[in-house]
């Protein structure tokens, strides 16, 4: 029986009744766990993500099933690679050599895209620099821009609560970063060009941290890290690979704030991520 979560935190999130029901059902079926890891691994490899669907900020609801397209395999799904035009190869290779202080300085002075114009500060990331988990969001909001740390607003509080329910904590085993380091005005979705201009920073963070698993939070991070513009509903429940690191995808916490009923799906994604993490750490 999986006891790898914090029941009190799940009650706070109002998720406990659902989890309790699932666990009861699993017991009645005699499986003992909601998603036995061996069964998950034994399932056939999931198909490649479907081709492009319209992008949306943070996430769009899947109206069908309440479970993810059930987790099927930890084998990375084939990725439809985006073609990237590197505007300034010298800048890319310079950033690829930086240490943490260099990354901080370079991002603070960065003018590679228009987002620098209205930022108060670049928000690089937070957490242990050797964290085994890396969570990647979209970009700083107003509070993050003010304070200089990712996910400190409402969405961050929900993220921390979900992490705590799963026995994880930012600053301990989790590093949190964003696709773009500067706040998009009015919290709009960063453009593909802005995400690409900022990619050398995220890539260098990944290379320095060398996490065991990356969790993409929402559509912008999922597109960046899987190379697919498929819907979140079709990307969930599978593993991908970015710079040699397994990647899983879940909804952005802001989407869960707007659609609290989707919290259960995020919880299921987090449980899938934990199993993918164990598989990756073997
Ligand atoms: N949303 C994000 O994607 N990142 C943050 O840091 C805050 C809100």
What does it look like?
The chain is globular and about 60 Å long. It starts with 6 loop residues before the first helix and ends with a helix. Strand 6 (238-242) and strand 7 form a beta hairpin. The protein contains 12 helices and 7 strands. The protein has 2 domains: 7-66, no CATH class; 80-281, Uracil-DNA Glycosylase, subunit E, CATH 3.40.470.10. Strands 1-6-7-5-3-4-2 form a 7-stranded mixed beta sheet, sandwiched between helices. The chain is α/β, with parallel strands linked by helices and 282 residues long. The structure holds uracil. Uracil is lined by residues 137-141, 144, 150-151, 155, 178.
Strand content: 5-15%
* CATH top level label of the largest domain: Alpha Beta
Mean of pLDDT: 83
Oligomer: single chain
Trace the largest sheet across and list its strands: 1-6-7-5-3-4-2
CATH architecture verdict of the largest domain: 3-Layer(aba) Sandwich
The rough form would be described as globular
As residue ranges, the low-confidence spans are 33-57, 60-72
CATH topology of the largest domain: Uracil-DNA Glycosylase, subunit E
Structure annotation, total helices: 12
Largest sheet: 7 strands, mixed
């Amino acid at each position: 029986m999986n006891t790898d979560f914090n029941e009190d935190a799940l009650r706070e999130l109002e998720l406990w009744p659902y989890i309790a029901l699932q666990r009861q059902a699993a017991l009645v079926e005699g499986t003992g766990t909601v998603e036995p890891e061996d069964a998950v691994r034994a399932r056939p490899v999931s198909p490649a993500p479907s081709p492009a669907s319209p992008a949306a900020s943070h996430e769009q609801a899947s109206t069908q099933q309440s479970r993810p397209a059930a987790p099927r395999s930890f084998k990375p799904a084939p990725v439809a690679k985006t073609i990237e035009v590197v505007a300034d190869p010298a800048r890319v290779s310079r950033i690829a050599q930086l240490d943490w202080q260099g990354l901080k300085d370079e991002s603070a002075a960065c003018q590679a895209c228009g987002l620098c114009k209205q930022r108060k500060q670049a928000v690089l990331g937070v957490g242990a620099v050797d964290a085994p988990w890396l969570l990647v969001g979209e970009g700083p909001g107003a509070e993050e821009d003010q304070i200089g740390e990712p996910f400190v607003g409402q969405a961050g509080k929900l993220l921390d609560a979900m992490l705590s329910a799963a026995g994880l904590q930012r600053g301990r085993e989790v590093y949190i970063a964003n696709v773009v380091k500067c706040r998009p005005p009015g919290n709009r979705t960063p453009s593909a060009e802005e995400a690409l201009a900022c990619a050398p920073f995220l890539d260098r963070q990944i290379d320095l941290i060398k996490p065991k698993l990356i969790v993409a939070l929402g559509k912008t991070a999922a597109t960046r890290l899987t190379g697919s513009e498929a819907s979140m509903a079709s990307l969930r429940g599978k593993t991908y690979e970015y710079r040699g690191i397994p990647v899983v995808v879940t909804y952005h916490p802001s989407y869960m704030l707007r659609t609290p009923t989707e919290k259960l799906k995020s919880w299921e994604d987090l449980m899938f991520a934990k199993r993918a993490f164990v598989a990756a750490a073997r």
